[in-house]
């Protein structure tokens, strides 16, 4: 009985393993290109988060990517890696130096391979809830009024950029962020970023409000 | 052969864990907390001129070096504003709540830090 079950789960595991190989062409090449281009010098690709103090966070040279497959929307990474445009108005971990927009750029081929590799890095903390990316009045009111998220985050308002500069911009968020990840990040931020300049809102806003916010933020473009 | 090393790491991990627990919040100094969390709006020197304080913002972050402004607040007001945000003291929600981010001790240490910046006492 037990050995049967063990056999079965071993079979399932190897089936899952085999299945994951051919279905994502480029994953292995992507991993190689990631190493070859020294991307891991600035990006953590294995979870969990390790930083415990402000000093740990300040020592990081780039945002962690170990949950990239849960955070980003399909298609975003392949495009961005071939033509990276600033996301954070300031240089990483700085509030005095502007982002110079000098992120390493990859060829089309490497971009799609690396994107396939990164999209395979998922976090189990992000549940597939299928939250919609939609502008909704309750999410918007929290963002612009109740909690003034715009104090640190910019967005495009009627064609013009507005809002604070120390958080990642939400211009283009609708192409970039998975609403389910945004919700998980707001609800359980310590899993993803234990030490960060953004305040924790879990416990201040209700879970339903965090969902409305996640939908709203992910709809911005 | 590997045993001593393993127990050494175990002790190390346990030690780190205990020291983290004992000091509560891993002993960040008030100045480090201020530079990391507050300076982005209030400025590195506390003058209300951080990078988020752009001209378009409807409310200017408080100048923490102003004895005139900061003297209007009791220590309790400062602690409420940091814990629950600007709305707790009938001010703008542009001042965010840090009650779920920082420990009580850290918030009190920041209050003391602000009192040094303004060189003023509470009302």
Give the C-alpha Rg of chain B.
19 Å
What is the straight-line distance between the termini of chain B?
66 Å
The strand count of chain A comes to 2
Classify the helix fraction of chain B into a percent range: 40-55%
Please name the two chains that share the biggest interface, counting residues whose Cβ lies under 8 Å from a Cβ on the partner chain: A-B, 24 and 27 residues
Can you describe this structure?
The complex is a heterodimer of chains A (221) and B (123). With 221 residues, chain A is mostly helical. The longest helix of chain A has 22 residues, at 2-23. The termini of chain A are far apart. In chain A, β1 and β2 (160-163) form a beta hairpin. Chain A has a two-stranded antiparallel sheet with strand order 1-2. Chain A has 2 domains: 23-118, no CATH class; 137-217, Cytochrome Bc1 Complex, Chain D, domain 2. Helix content of chain A is 44%, strand content 4%. Chain B has 123 residues and is an all-alpha fold. Chain B has a single domain (28-118), classed as Cytochrome c-like domain (Cytochrome Bc1 Complex, Chain D, domain 2, Orthogonal Bundle), CATH 1.10.760. Chain B has helices at 3-22, 30-42, 67-70, 75-84, 104-118. In chain B, α4 packs across α5. The N and C termini of chain B lie far apart (66 Å). The A-B interface holds A 52-54, 57, 90, 95-96, 145-148, 151-152, 162, 164-166, 197, 199-204 and B 20, 26, 28, 32-33, 36-37, 39-41, 44, 50-52, 54, 56-57, 85, 92-94, 96-101.
């Amino acid at each position: 009985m037990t050995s049967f079950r063990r056999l079965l789960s071993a079979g399932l595991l190897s089936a899952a393993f085999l299945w994951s190989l051919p279905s994502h062409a480029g994953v292995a090449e992507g991993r190689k290109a990631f190493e070859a281009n020294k991307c891991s010098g600035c990006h953590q690709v294995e979870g969990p988060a390790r930083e415990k103090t402000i000093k740990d966070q300040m020592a990081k040279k780039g945002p962690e990517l170990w949950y990239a497959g849960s955070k980003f929307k399909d298609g975003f990474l392949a495009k961005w890696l071939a033509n990276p445009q600033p996301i954070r108005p300031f240089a990483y971990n700085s509030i005095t130096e502007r982002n110079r927009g000098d992120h390493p750029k990859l060829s089309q081929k490497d971009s799609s391979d690396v994107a396939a590799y990164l999209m395979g890095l998922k976090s189990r903390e992000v549940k597939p809830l299928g939250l919609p990316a939609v502008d909704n009045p309750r999410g918007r009111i929290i963002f612009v009024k109740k909690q003034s998220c715009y104090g640190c985050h910019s967005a495009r308002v009627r064609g013009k950029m507005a809002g604070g500069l120390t958080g990642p911009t939400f211009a283009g968020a609708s192409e970039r962020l998975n609403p389910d990840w945004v919700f998980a990040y707001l609800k359980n931020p310590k899993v993803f970023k234990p030490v960060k300049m953004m305040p924790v809102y879990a416990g201040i806003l209700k879970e339903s409000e965090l969902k409305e916010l996640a939908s709203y933020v992910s709809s911005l473009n | 052969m590997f045993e001593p090393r393993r127990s050494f790491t175990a002790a190390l991990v346990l030690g780190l864990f205990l020291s983290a627990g004992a000091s509560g919040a891993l002993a960040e100094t008030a100045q480090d907390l201020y530079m990391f969390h507050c300076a982005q709006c209030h400025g590195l020197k506390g003058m209300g001129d951080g990078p988020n304080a752009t001209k378009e913002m409807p409310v200017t972050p408080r100048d923490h070096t102003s004895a005139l402004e900061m003297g209007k607040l009791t220590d309790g007001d400062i602690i409420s504003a940091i814990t629950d945000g600007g709305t707790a003291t009938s001010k703008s929600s542009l001042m965010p709540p840090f009650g779920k981010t920082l420990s009580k001790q850290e918030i009190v240490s920041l209050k003391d830090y602000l009192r040094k910046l303004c060189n003023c006492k509470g009302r």
